[in-house]
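In the lab's daily routine, each protein ends up as an entry in a very long ledger. A line of letters takes care of the sequence, but it says nothing directly about the fold. The fold becomes a row of whole numbers, each drawn from a learned catalogue of backbone shapes. The protein below has been through that process, and both of its lines are reproduced in full:
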Amino acid sequence: YTEVGERMQKLKGSNQSNNAFASNFVPIWIDLFNSDTCIVEKVKKSFQSSGLLGAAGIATSWTRSGEQWDFPNGWAPLQHMIVEGLAKSGSQEAKSIAQDITMRWINSNYVAYKETGAMHEKYDVEKCGDIGGGGEYIPHTGFGWSNGVVLAFLEEFGWPEDLKISCN
């Protein structure tokens, strides 16, 4: 329902998108949602069935528009909020999913860094080590949020000493 002036108007389902977007899962980042195990389970199952998790991280959407906010781009802040929400949800399975996303993201960022000498503002989630593209400008390098998210992931999950960071 939405308020229009002094009356309430029911929104039609046809006005809503059924497409999956990474931003749909950001509310799990808010502690309020994590206190309800039923909601956590629904969000976890919905995320797993969304198809947004690619080889190198979470796609922003499934829309192939060529724009920077669409497939196959993944953005560091969305990775971080979803991973952090899953990790602190209290569900061991959700924490395992968060760790898997973390490993994919760190691998891709590191391989791209080794190939280009820079961190990037977005990454292609279809292929580990590929940087993102599209949009109205040439993608930026040396991006602070990419640096910060990788550091936050390493602080939260660490990295197994016996595991090589690579895309293989």
About this structure: Residues 22-162 form one domain. Residues 1-5 have pLDDT under 50 and may be disordered. The longest helix spans residues 92-116.
